[in-house]
Amino acid sequence: MQAIRTLALAAFASAWSLSAQAALLDFTFTFSNRALGLSGTVTGIVRGLADNATSAAGSVEILSNTDGFGLGEYVGSPTNNTWTVAAGIITGYDFVVFGSFNTAPAVTCCTLYLNSLSVNGTALFDAPDGGAFSGTPKDILFARATTVVPEPASALLFAGALAAAALLRRRPTTA
Fold first, then answer.
1. Do the beta carbons of residue 154 and residue 39 sit within 8 Å?
2. 94-131 pLDDT per residue, tens
């Protein structure tokens, strides 16, 4: 009977620890880069945003740029890093990183500007100290990134404990 109580307590603790972790959301993005007369398409990913909250991104990474510069991680020393997510949708953002403020391994060659309140709210500059906007309105698109969540080790440990308890219970006792 004591073993069953212990297993029940372990099951409750495992379930609570798994549900207590807040899920963080990742979003891919793409925009046409019109900064300084450029005409490339930039794609990237924003990682670690809290749903139904305003929070800082844990990572903002440029994955591709048809103009050929600025690939890599931008969360080093951002000037601004504010993202608002409501019901799984990005509703506001203000992210500015001057490469001159970053240190490697974050990108130091370029400036990334994403701002939902500005008419000219998206730009990737091939200059660590920013640049001038061309006046083209922002056209950034965000989409929820799908990620595979690995099975937590605690769940596997709990399953093993249940299997061991079942084996011990079936073993005949000798008098």
1. no
2. 999 999 998 888 999 999 999 988 877 788 888 888 76
- What are the CA-CA distances from residue 56 to residues 53, 60, 82, 131, 171 (Å)? 10, 10, 5, 24, 55
- Sorted by sequence, the CB contacts under 8 Å of residue 70 that are 6+ apart come out as 42, 62, 107, 109, 110, 112, 124, 126
Contact between 142 and 122 under an 8 Å Cβ cutoff? The reply is no
Q: One-letter amino acid identity for 174?
A: T
DSSP 126-173: SSTT------PPP--EEEEPP-PPPPPHHHHHHHHHHHHHHHHHHSPP
Output the pTM of the full model.
0.70
Provide, rounded to the nearest whole percent, the portion of the chain with pLDDT above 90. Answer: 44
